[in-house]
Amino acid sequence: MAPIDLAHVSTVLERFTRTDLGGTLANIESAVKGLTAENCAKTLAAAGLTSEVLSAAASLKRLAGQVNVAIHATGILLCLPHILEAGETIEYVSLGAGNTGREFDLETNRRIAEFKFIHWRGGAESIRQNQLFKDFYLLAESTSRKRKYLYVLGTETPLHFLKGGRKLDSV
To answer: Which of these, 5, 110, 94, lies nearest to 55 by C-alpha position?
Structure first.
């Protein structure tokens, strides 16, 4: 995969969105009403909607996915000096996204652990809550005799969810 020219991607997207993506899209929604095959392409081009915009947005999305993986990996690695105890040794660490064939993000001779680097906003965050619950459940159900840890950014929102009244079948 070719490297992403972030400056070019940014310029293309800023030119399209102007200062307000919502407003830009609302204007396009109004402009496309009543269009036909004969005048559609010209109207879209006049609105700044080109294949270059789509390509730039797709490039940025690929990069954003890599940023999430980088946050997870560097977050775990930077935590290690703070959480490892004297005499504790790492058996494995799983830094990649998704299924890496490892059961947990970290296993040492004393603990198993999952890490969630989520900036909780509060309110409806069902996908994040589901991911948190899955990690919590897998740790709790693990037959390992090692101590089990679930590391999160901030505890208020995750604990509120885990202690809350959301029905289990909705999780």
So the answer is: 5
**Domain boundary residue among 34, 64, 94?**
64
Amino acid at 3: P
Order the strands of the 90-93 sheet from edge to edge.
90-93, 106-108, 111-116, 147-152
Find out whether 131 and 163 touch, Cβ atoms under 8 Å. no
Domain of 111, in residue numbers = 84-171
Q: pLDDT tens across 30-65, in order?
A: 999 999 999 999 999 988 899 999 999 999 988 888
Q: Residue holding tokens 């890599």? A: 66
In a domain, 72, yes or no: no
In angstroms, the Cα distances linking 7 to 12, 14, 56, 80 are 9, 10, 10, 34
What does the chain come to in residues?
171
> Based on the domain organization, do 89 and 58 belong to the same domain?
no
pLDDT at site 171: 47
* Prediction pTM value: 0.69
**Do 28 and 109 lie in a common domain?**
no
